[in-house]
Each structure stands twice: as C-alpha cells, then as structure tokens.
## 1
Amino acid sequence: MSGDATPSTRDLARRWLAAVRRGGCAGAEALALTGPDFRLHLPRALSPVVAGAGLDIPRERLAGIDTAVRGVFDVDRCQVARKSYDIFQGDKGGMQAELALRTPGGKAFEIVLAITFARAGDTLSAVWVHADTAEVMHRLAAA
C-alpha cells in the first residue's frame, strides 16, 4: 500500500488472484476487488474449455467461468510452480507464471499463463489471460 492508503495495482492483482483461488472469480472476496464495469478477457482458443461462458466476460457473468474452469481443472490443487516476471507501473501491469494443475481425475500438468491487469481507482477494471492455447489443449488431451 502506498502512503495515501490506495492499494497499488500489484497489490490489487495479487489479492484478486488469491481471492479467485480461494472462492472463484464470482466469489465475494474477488468481486470486492473489481469495479462495476470489470471485464475478464480470455483467449479465443479457450472457447472449448470455457464452453459457453464467453471470452469477454462482464462481472455479472463470472459465475459461469468458475463453473467451466472447475469442470476442467482441480482449482483447489492449483499451484504456481514458477513465476517468470511481475511488472507493474501506474494503473497497469502483468505477470507470467507457470501453473501446476491437475484435472478433476488427478492427472498433473503445467501451463504458462501471462496475466495483464488494469486498475480504475481502488479496484481492478479488467484482467486479460494470455496462454499458448495450443499447448494448453495438448496438455489437457494428454492428461
């Protein structure tokens, strides 16, 4: 936190990711860190994974992404295996990390995600998830 008690974008991003891990994108803790116009942006190639949840998801439809993701990944056992970078300046920033995931059936695999964040005031206004979607689909098929 800075001296004026306004959270930094880095702090908001880290708190949001932790809240999503604990209760999903639509959980009260994660929603409290997002503004009313918040959007979650996913890569087009993840359409089959998020089946119907959409790729440009407004705040009021985040429960759909939670359901879709939990059908593909054992979210409770997701861990950050390695963090490659964490760069934030002003109201924007991003990070890249390798996630150790498991399917609901217990098969382990890792994927690399880059996540970009934008802040408006004291809340996040948007999150973009970037992934090598061909690699994600390959790992899911092999798992």
## 2
Amino acid sequence: MKVKFMTGLGTIEFPCGTRHTLPYALNARYSDGAIHGMLLADLMALHPEPIAHQLQLTCEDGETLRLLITHRTTKGATFVAAMV
C-alpha cells in the first residue's frame, strides 16, 4: 500500500504563543476524521520543553489543524490532528 503525502509550508503556534513557519507533510484524512502527519523541523530547538498541549498548525492553503505531537526528534515530529 502506497501512502500519499501532501506537503507544504505552515505556521505552528506553541501554547506560549510563539509562532514558527516550517515544512509539514500530511496524509489523506482517515474515515474517522483523523489526520496523521510530520513536521519537518527540529521542534526541540524551537521549543525544548515537552509539549503536552494541543498545537495549532495553519497550513499553506489556509486550513487550520489542532494537533498533538506523538513523537519528536531533532529531525522532526509526528502528529495526529483534526481540522478546526
């Protein structure tokens, strides 16, 4: 099974109000509405504290996602999200 990702440049907003523009990749939405994706930047350098709250990602096309980070490294982060 081949997974197709949509990529773009979006703005992430951390709980403290800090915003950063970074690349992302999203898969197609599942039947339950969940969206899985990756942030393609070092979130540990941008925001070193653990992230236990929802973040907001404004995508290149203007859509807004509420997301939860599921895993992060110095190379990027994976997340699960829903459209706002």
